Known about the structure:
globular, 2 domains, Serine Threonine Protein Phosphatase 5, Tetratricopeptide repeat, about 65% helix, single chain
Amino acid sequence: MSAEAAAIMTYLNSKANAKNVAGMARFGINAKNTLGISIPILREAAREHKKNHELALELWGTEIHEARLLSGFIDDPKQVTETQMEKWARDFDSWDICDLVCSNLFDKTVYAKKKAVEWPSRKEEFVKRAGFVLMAALSVHDKKADDSLFISFLPIISRESTDERNFVRKAVNWALRQIGKRNEKLKKAALSTAKKIAKKDSKSARWIASDAIRELEAHKARKV
């Protein structure tokens, strides 16, 4: 381990909080290899190490939850490879690391759109979730993307809406809502998809649809 990575790990261990770990577990965050450090502390630590690809890889290799979160904050999306994305996605063991890595790093890579399409077909719960998180993140962050990209996501959302796993269905719902909030055209398309999903013989699908319809009908879509 490099001296820089070792220093960071010493710092992170000094901020460990067992009480926070217990609280995180109550919110569905895996307590294994977790130090209980808040996101603001990690974001502050990340400021000194931005766009440091090699350091990010080292920290990820420690398997410590907060070190991996920090990796997502400091890595350089231009240097992230498809192989790295696949490896990290398989390592996801909690919704927070899935969401934060996808929405702070992976969505800015050249592979983001490809993985948003591929990962929803995967069986692993958090890899599958990651695909939908990418859809949601792209709908917010990629200001230049054409509407056709997000319309292409809607059949995937519909197809996977019957997955009953909590962390998957919530991400499916999130993607559908964020696409619909992008602009009026996509709002109409998302609502149409939600109404089709509502007719499926699935408790998960009906929840996804009803929640999305309720929020989108009350929301004035932003201009992108």
